[in-house]
Design goal:
With 216 residues, this protein is of the alpha+beta class. The protein is built from three helices and eleven strands. 13% of the residues lie in helices and 32% in strands.
């Protein structure tokens, strides 16, 4: 009888030690006066896997840089670079665009879709998540994608830098994956009185466009 009790106790201790040592479960061992017991809880899901937390890389990043290569059927082409230091910071937009008419102003917008399967036409309307009317970049009421006009020199080249507080590379209204479109007319900034002024700035056709992609 004494041998049987000893073996039973050893078997119980072995089982408790095995469960408590299993790395896939979380355990806590409590000492009791009549022996040891193991309190087993549910497994903890590691972060970053299905069922656990999956952090948004663009939200967590210290800074994000994005690039857009502009191309079209005509001569207009160029590069637009976006940089944002944090989700609450303004975005710096630098551009180098060639092939436009000399000494002209040309509409410059972020459009809703990064879909260029039908050329620039399939990029959709100006990016406008808050359902506003068209305006100038400095207006309180404007589409998020309203960046006004670029100005060309006597060679048809436009090089510049602007800062915008509504364009975001992080968070739910990020423009990454959307499109930049250059127009063949001047954006009237919603003040031209044309039937298209409050929708598009009556900026005309779309000779060049490109998708905004992550650069870092």
């Amino acid at each position: 009888m004494q041998l049987f009790e000893t073996l039973s106790i050893l078997a119980l201790l072995f089982s408790a030690a095995f469960v408590c040592a299993n790395p896939q479960v979380q355990t806590s061992v409590e000492q009791a006066s009549d022996g040891e017991s193991c309190d087993v809880t549910q497994p903890q899901t590691p972060p970053g896997v299905i069922g656990g937390e999956s952090p948004n890389v663009y939200k967590a990043a210290k800074s994000v840089k994005a690039v857009c290569l502009l191309r079209g059927k005509g001569n207009v082409s160029g590069t637009v670079i976006f940089e944002q230091e944090s989700e609450s910071a303004p975005t710096t937009i630098s551009y180098n665009i060639v092939g436009n008419a000399p000494n002209a102003e040309r509409g410059f917008h972020v459009h809703t879709f990064g879909n260029l399967t039908d050329g620039c036409a399939s990029a959709g309307p100006h990016y406008n998540p808050f359902n506003k009317t068209h305006g100038a970049p400095t207006d309180a009421v404007r589409h998020v994608g309203d960046l006004g006009n670029i100005k060309t020199d006597d060679r048809g080249v436009a090089i510049g830098i602007l800062t915008d507080s509504q364009i975001k590379l992080m968070g739910p209204y990020s423009v990454i994956g959307r499109a930049v479109v250059i127009h063949d007319g001047t954006d009237d900034l919603g003040k031209g009185g044309h039937e298209q002024s409050m929708q598009t700035g009556n900026a005309g056709g779309r000779p060049a466009c490109g998708v905004i992609g992550v650069a870092n």
